[in-house]
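Q: I'm writing up a methods section and want to include an example of the input and output format. Could you take the sequence below and give the corresponding predicted structure tokens, formatted cleanly so I can copy it straight into the document?
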Amino acid sequence: MIPLSALPSVNAALNATSALLLIAGYGFIRAKRLPLHVACMLSACATSLAFLVSYLIYHAQVGATPFPGQGWIRVAYFTILISHTVLAAVILPLVGRTLWLAIQRRFDAHERLARVTLPLWLYVSVTGVLVYLMLYHAPLAHACPMCKEALLDPAGAQTVTRAAKGYAMSIAALVGMPFVLVGGVAMLIVRASRRRDANLR
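A: Here is the clean output for your methods example:
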């Protein structure tokens, strides 16, 4: 039996696993290795479903966890959290529809919808990990007085040191990762679709 306190870490691991499966699934379909693509995408569905169940169980018992940070890190956290939450609600019917089209062997419609579903699903998975890191591990800045002063105490922001700046830049890099990742996948999808259209002409 997994203890309740371990569920946030489990949820982050499930999100990370889902993201990796999605990337692998995309790679396999580009390589025309259909059985591996199907295995990865069905596994991503199962992993995301397991995350949803675990997430609901945890928050039904614990409720919302307040974010302790202040200043710009708080703005960054809620920006990611809100976009993650909204798109998580949107992605559920999209994934279901995309999967249903594949089951019905309507592959043209499946491919068109997957071009929307994949980057959104990937964004939700990656930002789920980021929300976990920022909510449960950014407070580890308390272990470093300089980082705490810079990130969690706005009044002390004038005394930011090199170490605190390095920590802040690390958080900024984490915030930017989902946008870079989703943008890269979107670019690959656009290029692949253009090549496909060019070959059909």
